[in-house]
Amino acid sequence: MVNNNVEILNRIGYGKEQIDGKTFKLEFSRDNMKTFQYKCNDSKEIYINSIYNTHKEIDNLLKDIDFDKDNLFIVYGIGMGYHIKEIYNRMTKFSYILVIEKDKDILSTYMEHNDFSELINPNILFFFGSEEEIIENIHTNITRINIMGAAVNSVSIIPSAYKQIYGMRYI
Question: Is the residue at 69 inside a domain?
Fold first, then answer.
């Protein structure tokens, strides 16, 4: 699976170096969804997804969003990808998702345990790397898509784990 994910990374402009970080030990939530513990800068360990009910966590994250509108979703963090899949399943065909992940270890863990092809879609763009690299890539690639209608309704999606990892200053 990792080799296939590396091929996909290459196709979207990234290389294997994006996933040469350490990987975290996979665990399963009570509702049998993949998760892992992440050690924050303050040494506190948190689960990247709920250890109890990942489905409920995602529903709570997305509950106030009007999915009938064309939206530009700015998603901070790939996690295990569940929230991205759910946004894609609910959004209009003229909506777009920008996924931002700057933590190489989280991205490496995702790529080791998931099929990245499940997230690959013309309406989903990925931005990986340092803050500077992400900003440069957004600036370079944002013109590849027609976001004029969707940009009017931009929605930031920040999973609770990422609020704890980065605080509210993610980017």
Answer: yes
Residues 79-94: what's their mean pLDDT? 97
Range of the domain at 10: 2-166
- Total Cβ atoms within 10 A of residue 107: 25
Other Cβ atoms closer than 10 A to 170: 16
pTM of the full structure? 0.91
CA distance 2 to 154: 32
Question: What is the number of structural domains in the chain?
Answer: 1
Question: For residue 143, what pLDDT is reported?
Answer: 77
User: CA-CA distance, 115 to 27, in Å (whole number)?
Assistant: 17
* Average pLDDT value for residue range 79-102: 96
Length of the chain: 171
- Alpha-carbon span 165 to 147, nearest angstrom: 29
What is the strand order of the sheet 45-47 is part of? 26-28, 34-39, 45-47
Whether 161 is covered by a domain: the verdict is yes
In a domain, 93, yes or no: yes
Judge whether 171 lies within some domain.
no
